[in-house]
């Protein structure tokens, strides 16, 4: 069962969870996403919340809604997502992490890279 935080709206948290699944190739590109009802039942949330999360992924160019068939993972979605996440890591998260490591007096010799 998914544990939800109160820091972000539920639909954003679900979208993030679904993004992680897409990064892992679940479901594969070109394949259907689980239905809104299935996701709502699986995560114990309102179907409107699920629909909003899927619309968010659609707006990011990762999903497409096929009338009468449901939501499908777009071709190239995983690569697009990897590129977005890599850019965020290198441009935002890494500089912040480097600053924090420097404040703590930690250098490359202190880090285990496996």
TrEMBL record:
Residues 8-76 form the HTH gntR-type domain. It holds the Pfam family GntR. InterPro entries: Tscrpt_reg_HTH_GntR (IPR000524), WH-like_DNA-bd_sf (IPR036388), WH_DNA-bd_sf (IPR036390). It comes from the Bacteria. The keyword rRNA-binding does not apply. SUPFAM superfamilies: Winged helix' DNA-binding domain. SMART domains: HTH_GNTR (SM00345). Keywords: DNA-binding, Transcription, Transcription regulation. This is GntR family transcriptional regulator. It comes from Roseateles rivi. The lineage of its organism: Bacteria, Pseudomonadati, Pseudomonadota, Betaproteobacteria, Burkholderiales.
